[in-house]
Amino acid sequence: MKLVLANIIDAYRDNMALIQDPVLREGEIIDCYHLEDRALLWRGQRKVVVTSLPVEPEHVRYLRQAMGYAQLDNLWPRQASQSLCEDLLRDGELRAAIVERLRGEGEVSLVPFQASRQVLAVAEALRQEGLPIANPECPPADLLWVRDYLDSKAGFRHFFTSIQDQVQGVRLPEGAVAEDTAEAARLMARFLSEGRGCLCKPNNSQSGVGFVILRPGDLQGDYRALRRAIKARLDADSQMASDVVVVEELIEMDRRLGGGSPSIEMYIPAEPERDVEFLYLCGQILTPSGYFFGVEMYGDVLAPALQETLEEAGLTVAREMRKLGYVGYFDMDLVAGVDGQMYAVEINTRRTGGTHAHEAAEEIYGPRYWERAAVISNNVLAFQGPPLTYAGLREVVGPLLFPMEGRREGILPTIVSSLPAGHFGYIAFGPNIARARELERTLHERLAASGRPLAAH
């Protein structure tokens, strides 16, 4: 039995507090609540899923039936804050409901979005109430620093530099960790003066939020003028000014290769006798500024030889992370350069924006599903026009709703709490990528026909 804790808001709250724009900050908080809907698809057949806000009950019933889950229950705290773990610890009624649902089910595996001290505290609180809780995806408290170190942009760059000779076929972009905005401005000005684009990343940003991308010609002036202009821009962002930042050469993407930004997801079991596991390879769906929307998984996302190279690279990285003490899920994001090189750009030490799509696809098609099916996941499909209710969304999806006439294809809504905000998430399942994209296009056409054309987000 699984107890799924969708603590997405917890993982990002410290970084969101540094976002200076109050509208952007509030939008990111609300988005975290919405993204928790994905947790309903984590970890298979029998589970109780705790989210900050209640998920539409009809959607829970739909997923239970469409996915064939033996048990899927959704629970939530009476009052949501910016920490689901803290909400659970102070909400005795929620804990009592969890215990009632899980008592007598044997060992209960606690499945979080991201491991943390608060997750360990939740586990201990539930043990005190009589539940036999296991933490298969959480390192012990004294090793949680490894998660934070690897998840940061600077920590990843230090770590990958130390193991780069062992990782075949993948390298780091040219760059450095800057101690402050003045040093970052010097590095960026040098790249621009040499006619190269550059990228500056806040140390603990997520989903591309706060990235500064500059190309030759974006700013005018000599080296000194560039430094001054860049420093002023970085100083205006509290994310940049509060910590070290990473400056790298901007790698021009070869979008024929996994959309230009492939990613590999891995799992490091807590049991030392079990080897690390390769989960899947995907192409990421990104905006030009690097904001993450979703993933594509299918057999030809990359050439077979390159897929094998990246799978081996992922296994090597996972084994080195295990030596540091990391346990659980992670992905490594890459950029496919037009120069033919594959560049590693970051690690995310948690479940990711594609984990729910991977676990749903495994449930439907079995292991290595990409060899016989295609999956497209979009977490943020924004639309204009009148708002949609959940019933209205079901009507728009109509005959595309998974499973289509009992076949293992169709559109599976995934994120529905965001409908009042004018967007939702879904997975398109098809026997091949052409069919999955056709289903996606048809969904977009049906939205437009309902008076809701797609919108930028």
Structure description:
The chain has 15 helices and 17 strands. With 457 residues, it is an alpha+beta fold. The strands form three sheets. The chain has an eight-stranded antiparallel sheet, with helices on both faces. A five-stranded parallel sheet has the order 3-2-1-4-5. Strands 6-9-7-8 form a four-stranded antiparallel sheet, with helices on both faces. Strand 16 and strand 17 form a beta hairpin. The longest helix has 21 residues. It starts with a strand and ends in an 8-residue tail after the last helix. The mean pLDDT is 93.
In short:
With 457 residues, the chain is of the alpha+beta class.
User: Low-confidence runs (pLDDT<50, min 5 residues)?
Assistant: none
Mean pLDDT: 93
List how many beta strands DSSP finds. 17
Helix content, binned percent? 25-40%
Can you say what the CATH homologous superfamily of the largest domain is?
Answer: ATP-grasp fold, B domain
Termini separation (Å)? Answer: 37 Å
CATH architecture of the largest domain: 2-Layer Sandwich
Structure annotation, total helices: 15
Record the SSE blueprint.
Elements: E1 2-5, H1 8-16, H2 22-35, E2 46-50, H3 57-66, E3 71-75, H4 84-90, H5 92-102, E4 108-112, H6 117-128, E5 133-134, H7 144-151, H8 153-163, E6 175-178, H9 181-193, E7 198-202, E8 212-214, H10 223-235, H11 238-241, E9 245-249, E10 262-268, E11 277-286, E12 292-297, H12 304-324, E13 328-336, E14 342-348, H13 355-365, E15 374-382, H14 390-397, E16 410-415, E17 423-430, H15 433-449
Parallel strand pairs: 1-2, 1-4, 2-3, 4-5
Antiparallel strand pairs: 6-9, 7-8, 7-9, 10-11, 10-13, 11-12, 12-15, 13-14, 15-17, 16-17
